Amino acid sequence: MKRLFLLLGLVGSPFFGARAQTADFSAVDALFTTNLSRYNGSVVCLVKQNNRVVYYKALGSRDSLSVVPIASATKNITGAVVLRLAQEGLIGLDDSIGRYLPRATFFRKGNSTIRQNFSHTGGWAGTSGEDFLARPALSLAQCVDSILREDPQLYRPGTAFRYGGVSMQVAGQCAAVAAGTDWNALFTTRLKQPLGLSSTTYQLSSPTNPRLAGGISSNARDLMRFTQFILRNGKVGTTQVIDSVWMQEMWRDQTNRVPQLASPYPDNPAYNNPYNQPIIYYGFGAWQDVYNPATQYTEQISGAGAFGTIYWVDRCRGITGVIVTQSSYATTAATSMQAIDLIRAAIGGGCGTITAVRETAAAAAVLIYPNPAQEAVYFSTPNLQPATVSIYAPDGRLVQPPTRVLANTALFLRGLAPGVYYLRIALADGTRAYRQLLVQP
């Protein structure tokens, strides 16, 4: 039996291969101008590469400082607050909601986890629950208690994906309980102040019942600060606001590829889909919208809202971008995603090319552990064969030269920065194996 594996070709660089300074964005300009009516006559697009503005377009009455409601583009921001609390040890992503909300257990709905509720796999129907999110007279605690009492669960948590706002409202109240404060204070101290998001508030919703999955109002400047924060793995200036190991949760599919019962992201999207993936999966508050199946590497994540605002983070090219408008996502999504495609093409570069190779069944038996790793990894090989191991970055660069190791002995990782790498393992019998490795701080 043989398996098909894929190895990165040794060309291309995610940052140095691009030519942003000479990029031609005329096609992007034409796209926005031609489709301005889709954006209700006003749209702002701001793009940075490696923290330098490479494209800015403001058409109509708004500019980069104009504040608009961003609807579900809120989700990733809320998720970042929860990741900060997880880093502090106040909450566990795999804790059940019943641990923090005894009423959830009372109503036999306490088994879903924080992680499941932030990836829309918590089981909620959202039918009656969405109504409680829109009641400004309620507190967040009262809103969630009403959800626990009234909103049914359609499926066993972790077995299906159903997009909506109810699950994040429930998980957010767990975070507030764990921290012993209200949500707005959590947001202000953990994210708003450290990132300088001076124009970002849960203004669209009630001060006492903030809509955690869709209540933020913001502008292009603040959203760019947030996307830069993601690109820099949780760092603002020289300050690590959220550790990179926690920021990686945004880049991981959190749904385990379960069936999607309801999703606003279209199947087989025509644009923003360079690897022609039929289904787009979800991370911790963000879409995994550019996933390379060959390298198993998420190259880009994004967030979008019902009023047309969309942001994206392309870590292969060092691109962060925002499109801010107040229109309809259903009307603008295809145009915005086409704009992202055109921006990607204008800047160029990427994570490298892919070369197909074949791996034998014996090579499939090669295991590495631990994975994720920090300082060293070990190998389990057929018949305890020695191996020669080379380590590559996702862009195909050799970052650790071939090293001979014995089975069950350590291969030390020589100062590798946190991130995803690929191991090329050559056994003594001529067998080749390729493995993905996540290095943690």
Overall mean pLDDT stands at 89
Task: Write down the Rg.
Answer: 23 Å
Number of domains: 2
CATH C-level category of the largest domain? Alpha Beta
Indicate the percent of residues in helices: 25-40%
Instruction: Please state the overall shape, judged from the principal axes of the Cα atoms.
Output: globular
Percentage beta strand: 25-35%
Provide the low-confidence segments as ranges.
1-20, 353-358
The CATH architecture of the largest domain is 3-Layer(aba) Sandwich
CATH superfamily of the largest domain: DD-peptidase/beta-lactamase superfamily
* Biggest sheet overview: 7 strands, antiparallel
Q: For the terminal residues, how far apart are their CA atoms?
A: 37 Å
CATH topology of the largest domain, anyone?
Answer: Beta-lactamase
Structural class: alpha+beta
Give the helix tally. Answer: 12
The strand order across the widest sheet is 3-2-14-13-12-11-10
Total strands: 22
Please characterize this protein's 3D structure.
It is a single chain. The chain contains 12 helices and 22 strands. The protein is of the alpha+beta class. It folds into 2 domains: 96 residues, Immunoglobulin-like (Sandwich); 328 residues, DD-peptidase/beta-lactamase superfamily (Beta-lactamase), CATH 3.40.710.10. The strands form 7 sheets. Strands 3-2-14-13-12-11-10 form a 7-stranded antiparallel sheet, sandwiched between helices. Helix 2 packs parallel to helix 7, helix 2 packs across helix 8 and helix 6 crosses helix 7. The radius of gyration is 23 Å and the shape is globular. The N terminus is likely disordered.
